[in-house]
Amino acid sequence: MRRYRSHIALVASWFLTANMYQTALFVGRSGLHSKKMWLYMAVHVALIAWCGMILRAEWKKPNGLFHRMAQAYRELPIPRVPKAIFLAILVIEVLHISEGRIRYPFDDVGMFRYARKAQPLPTVLTLPKYFYHDAEGKVVPLEIRKQHLFFPADLLGVTYNNEFTFSAAYHYKGEKANHDFLLHELHRHAGIDTLWVGLQSVDYSTGAVSFDPDLGRACQFNDTATIFYGPIYVPEYQRTLVNCSAHIH
Amino acid sequence: MHTSTDLIRRFRWPGSPYHLAALRIAIGAQTLYAVNSKIFDLLLAVGKRQKVTTIFPAWFDDFTAAHLVPGLVVFCTVGAILLTIGLFTRVVLPLLTTAFIVLYGFYYLGANAPAQWLYLWFPLLVLCFARSQDVWSLDAMLVRRRGGRTEQDPVNYRWPIELCVLWFCYIYFAAGLAKVLPMSKGFAWFNGQTSKEIIYYRYLDSPFHYLFGEPFLNYAEASVIFGVITVAALLLELATIVLVLTNKYHLWILGLLVAMHLFLYMTGVGGFTQTALMLGIALMPMTWFDRNMRQPVLGER
Fold first, then answer.
1. Residue A197 confidence (pLDDT) above 50
2. Which end of chain B has less neighbouring CB within 10 Å, N or C?
């Protein structure tokens, strides 16, 4: 253990600094004023100072950790210029991880980092979704996210990949331009000329999945309910058809 | 005699030109797939951005969105094809890397997701300085036709592979760290609610729904399964640090991460299985690509 003391001190000092910085961001300015938080931060500062003393002693050693790190870097069989570039990228990435932020293309890879309070969710999940009528007039829900999966994709081609379907189904589903783009592509590939709005539901207590093509109910729900990634775009003429003109969002 | 197989020592091991060429071909093919996405047309049509930043100045982001995107798509498509077949590789790579980073900067501003670019930009940059075109390429064929020799010191084929291993480790280890930092939030993350909400809200747009028609259990209620999934994913992500310490568990880690991505894919979080497998080529034994090579025995070099 003693052999790795300086290694541990180096990693610990970085981790504690990153934790302190991100805690300050997480609790905000008001949260920093509590006694508990002062104590928490003081413990961090004390531990970082302790690590600093170990590392200072290591810095002075002729064959210490930093000396060995520099030697290992010099001996890497990578040409000098790319080696310096890769080292710079590594340092910048570590800084971004410490900060917990992304500045493209440097990334802390913080997908799904948010923590939620444990709580039960509504048994029935309802989402507004586009649908179309097939050749026999049957109602078919438009499964946008299905289109990026190689085998079940039934309407669009291989270039309509995950990135496309995610933005079309979630990020920009409330935009008229998204609806128009989707409709244009669906018309080109599958001959679909109208996208209507319906409601798809899953009752998690029974496992039943249902689809309600009633435009009026869908429009009203879309305008009033809290929906995952927000409401979907409903074309104006469809709103007029069912007298649904209240834009709550 | 050493018994260590850590990354620093592995940099000095001999590599295989075929292993590196396989990685080049996979990166080229994946880049071709990534730049031919309809997402660019959609983002141009919508014309909106997320609240995110890039390293580029704002005027450059605006200029890219206004003038460069269609041209960059064509340029990257041609470059990715040339990279895959290994023609004019040394010239193509720096141009393709630059164009790809600029193009995906536009994507990131519109979609705020680390899809494709996170796995591709650094390996592309590594290939700019590597000799990935020495075999399985038209460049090598042309050189041999003129009577030249392409293959070099085997160490030159090793360090690009190990840098990609390091990048693979960074992606997952950083993802694990992001979930526990800051620690005051990290403990809350273990309750499994985040995993539960992902599965709950995306069910209707997931392959689990498309294939099986109904949910396996009541996702609305608390279940120990969500906590188990959460802890397992976190431990697996943090375990990728082992890739730096030794090469003994490369295949185990790659297999488990691909399995994790397949599960996420089934829950509606797609887009990462393919890229993980592509970069995962660096984690595969070089004997899979080059039967004449043998893995360095412990103690060598």
1. yes
2. N
Long-range contact set of residues B212-220: C-beta below 8 Å, sequence gap at least 24: B213/A209, B214/A202, B214/A207, B214/A208, B214/A209, B215/A202, B215/A204, B215/A207, B218/A123, B218/A204, B218/A205, B219/A121, B219/A204, B220/A120, B220/A121, B220/A122, B220/A123, B220/A125, B220/A204, B220/A205
Rounded CA gap, B38 and A158, in Å? 9
Supply the mean pLDDT for chain A: 92
From CA A147, how far away is CA A133, in angstroms rounded? 18
Q: Please give, rounded to a whole number of angstroms, the shortest distance from the CA of B233 to a CA of chain A.
A: 11
Indicate whether B148 pLDDT > 90. Answer: no
d(CA B202, CA B162): 36
- Are B175 and A110 inside 8 Å of each other by CB? yes
pLDDT over 90 (residue A243) = no
Smallest Cα distance from A26 to chain B, Å: 7
Q: Tell me, yes or no, if A209 comes closer than 8 A to chain B by beta carbon.
A: yes
Confidence of residue B298 (pLDDT cuts 50, 70, 90): very low
Domain coordinates in residue numbering, chain A:
2-75, 124-241
Q: Which residues of B touch A41 (CB under 8 A)?
A: none
Cβ contact A76–B159 (<8 Å): yes
Interface confidence (ipTM) of the complex: 0.92
Tell me which chain B residues have a C-beta less than 8 angstroms from the C-beta of A77.
11-12, 155-156, 158-159
Separation CA B77–CA B92 (nearest Å):
11
Q: Which of B46, B163, B178 sits opposite A177 (nearest CB)?
A: B46
Q: Do B100 and B69 meet the contact criterion of CB atoms below 8 Å apart?
A: no
DSSP A55-87: HHHHHHSTTSHHHHHHHHHHHSSS-HHHHHHHH
Question: Higher pLDDT residue, A247 or B76?
Answer: B76
How far apart CA B222 and CA B192 sit, in angstroms, is 9
